[in-house]
Amino acid sequence: MARKVTFDLEDEEFFGERASIGSPKFDKMMKGGIPRGFTILCIGEPGGGMDLFMKQFTSVAEDPENTILISTAESQNEILQVFRRFEWPLDLKVRTIGEEYNEKVLEKDLEASRFRLEGFSMQDIQRLAQTRFVEEDNTDYLTSLASQITSLGPFFRCAVDNLDFFFQRNESHRVISMLRVMQAHTQLNRGVLLISASSGSVAENIQRELALICDIVFDFEVKMIANTFETRMIVRKFRNAPENLRVYTYRVTDEEGITPETVDRVA
Amino acid sequence: MLYSNELLAEVGRWVFVSMLGTPQYTRDRCITGIHGLDEITRGGIPYGATVLVGGTCGSGKTTLTMEFLVHGAQMGEACAYFAATEPSVKLLENIRQYTFFDMEMVDKGLINVFDMDVVYSWLGLTKATFDRDDINSLVKAITDIVNTIGVTRLVIDSVTTLCYKIPNDQLIRDFLFTLGKTLATQGCTSFLVAEITSAGAKAHWSSFGVEEAILDGIMVLGDIDRMGHLLRFLQVVKMRGTDHSRAKYAIELTPMGVMMTPMLKWGVDSD
């Protein structure tokens, strides 16, 4: 039997049927934002502004306590600097899985290099003689991610930047299966979940499967036109609203972050 | 002619010394303290020797090598035991049943027990096989430990498990040669345990066949079937730098440690 989530009437009224994507202009073009309960996939090449778009999405948190930005590549400090630059509120929750991984795994590698190069000191030897078991890093970051997202309450907002980290360390089918769990939780709790993946790092069949699970798919593209770069966000999928399929050319401004310039209809 | 008593005594001493011949050079010995073993090696193992202790399963390799360290620790020497075959927790639990072993020696740092898995992990040696760089860093780590805490007695139990990670005979040879040379330079007498499947006359004394030629000494521990009873034996096959008996000796693993008796020459080797 399917689990039921009860929603507070006041909350329903406050949060509404649709959630902001992070840019008022985009919201307007999408008829008031994205429907609550949707999982959105952003796919593209690095440099297209996808990472900024993820942060911008969390910057419009209706309930900061129930909003989280999960980054696998950037540090807390780097994220903070971006939020300060655009003067976005700093009260949301941020988890930097990349930093956690670096602390646990890369620092261990660094220490091993030191031991190999410089040898053991007396303190190291004393510690070594008292260490009876290998400290293995058994952290399953994928399960931890899924568990964190599924613990979020109704009307949550979450951005995961990006899935490459998990695809590199897990079997693809595991990542897909965890994503299904997160998508189901998002739907059930009328949350909004934004995830990203690099187009080059995921196989085509996996990309198709990701697109099938997600309700909206945004493609981020960088094109060189004459001597300038043109950045585009293509709406490739919009569940139950194909009229929203469009190509948005966007630019980055200090006032609005990522904001659309012109709109072209996909033929 | 009359001679004084002092003069007669001096002449007598000269005659006695002349009868003994030219004084022979003897190497300093590491007294193992193991019952019978120092007699077999005519006073102990030459200092700095690297000895292969090859033996079949259950032949007493771990007990004998640990007893070697215990006697060293009792004389105030710093000892190191590298456990590669079983976790050190399990090893210590098993060995503390012997009355010769005192856990305080470990607690006080006289016997330093290292888990090879932990050493590998600390050095980042997590691959299934080691390359030359990995081997060099492992030798460096062992040498560091010997140097820093002044280890004079060392056991690697077993070198076979360690060598399984080394992909070819040439690298195994290089590893053992470098390790043996470095330990000898530090004046550290070492027992490298090797697991063998058979200790009979036709058997190899080592697991890979390369260890026996490089190392200074070979001790073999095995079993002989005597009327349905497996009798443990010890035999010193090779020991550079000292004369030694090459006979097989029956050994018994008693709570006090290894007890050795000469083996009666009857019956036929079972293998």
What can you tell me about this protein's structure?
The complex is a heterodimer of chains A (267) and B (271). Chain A starts with 8 loop residues before the first helix and ends with a strand. By secondary structure, chain A is an alpha/beta fold. Chain A has ten helices and eleven strands. Chain B is α/β, with parallel strands linked by helices. Chain B has one domain: P-loop containing nucleotide triphosphate hydrolases (Rossmann fold). Chain B contains ten helices and eleven strands. In chain B, the strands form two sheets. In chain B, strands 5-4-6-7-3-8-9-10-11 form a nine-stranded mixed sheet, with helices on both faces. Chain B has a two-stranded antiparallel ribbon with strand order 1-2. In chain B, a hairpin with an 8-residue loop joins β9 and β10. Chain B is globular, with a radius of gyration of 21 Å. The C terminus of chain B is likely disordered.
In CATH, the homologous superfamily of chain B goes by the name P-loop containing nucleotide triphosphate hydrolases
Return the string of H and E elements of chain B. HEHEEHEHHEHHEHHEHEEEE
Described by the principal axes of the CA atoms, the overall outline of chain B is globular
Order of helices and strands of chain A: HEHEEHEHEHHHEHHEHEEEE
- Quaternary organisation of the protein chains: heterodimer
* Proportion of residues in extended strands of chain B: 25-35%
> Could you give the distance between the termini of chain B?
73 Å
